[in-house]
Design goal:
about 290 residues, alpha/beta, UDP-N-acetylmuramoyl-L-alanine:D-glutamate ligase, nine-stranded mixed β-sheet, four-stranded mixed β-sheet, 9 helices
């Protein structure tokens, strides 16, 4: 089986700061690092490190060959990443001493993926494969409809959150993952809580409080792991990638969620994004 990920690819410029800047405030950065990032890239790396075959569908600019190479080094199949005229997407990330972050993203090539490239890439997918996308790329509507028609399991990570986009995609989804704030925003837009949505499995992440799975057996709580967080960037993406990898490999949902909780807890003890996502051996050995 395989996981097909229509996802963003970013250059993440990460700045350590004493606290998140307030409006109008200027701060001296305490450190600067460049990482591979983007919600899509993070999820692809996480899923690959969790042991599944990941085919990433996306785009970079002429300046983005390094990002494609890095993904390949981390075990992601990059044959469906194309080069477009737009600049590679990038993010400016502030990480405070308490681990909280603030992020600005320039979408660039992530919003310039050609439709014919998407369709050609998915011709190689097989019934029963998983497909996932996030709200950082174009072609989401076209992609989930095509994936559903092809008999793929369709997942959506509803971030950066847009209620209108999420509402449009709901009829085609088998799996929806969103955080607590996004779940509340979606309820305000639809009048439906996670248990009422027309999606087979809904997962709401709760940060340090763990997560909840809303499925056919009601609500299942996923316990958190207590760690000292130094950087929460990419933790949710790591969780999602690990969950989908587990499902693609045939794990029961609850087992996949428990493994994902360990992976994301280990992730927040490290500075960085895709480059520091733990592999499955590290997660299995982690006792936090």
């Amino acid at each position: 089986m395989a996981l097909w990920n229509l996802g963003g690819i970013n250059a993440d410029h990460v700045y350590g700061v004493p606290h998140i800047p307030a409006p109008g405030e200027t701060l001296d950065g305490q450190s600067h690092s460049l990482y591979l990032g983007g919600k899509g890239a993070n999820m692809s790396v996480a899923a690959a490190r969790a042991g599944t075959h990941v085919r990433h569908i996306g785009a970079v600019g002429e300046d983005g060959a390094w990002a494609r190479d890095r993904l390949m080094e981390y075990g992601v199949d990059t044959r469906a990443i194309t080069t477009v005229e737009a600049d590679t997407a990038h993010a400016i990330i502030f990480v405070a001493e308490d681990g909280e972050n603030a992020i600005m993203v320039y979408p660039g090539a992530n919003r310039a993926i050609p439709e014919d490239h998407l369709k050609q890439s998915l011709t190689q997918a097989e019934t029963g494969d998983w497909f996932v996308c996030q709200n950082e790329v174009n072609l989401q509507d076209e992609a989930v409809k095509l994936a559903a028609d092809m008999g793929l399991n369709v997942a959506y990570a509803a971030a950066p959150f847009d209620a209108d986009v999420t509402k449009r995609l709901l009829p085609y989804l088998d799996f929806l993952i969103l955080n607590e704030v996004e779940a509340d925003q979606l309820k305000q837009a639809t009048g439906q809580g996670p248990a009422d949505l027309p999606v087979r499995d809904v997962v709401v992440t709760l940060g340090a409080k763990g997560a909840q799975w809303f499925g056919e057996n009601g609500v299942v709580d996923v316990a958190p792991h207590v760690v000292t967080a130094v950087d929460t960037t990419g933790a949710g993406d790591t969780f999602t990638g690990y969950v989908l990898a587990g499902l693609d490999r045939g794990q029961p949902m609850e087992q996949a969620l428990k493994t994902a909780a360990k992976a994301s807890a280990l992730m927040v003890t490290r500075h960085g994004t895709a480059d520091v996502i733990p592999d499955l051996a590290e997660v299995q050995a982690f006792s936090g």
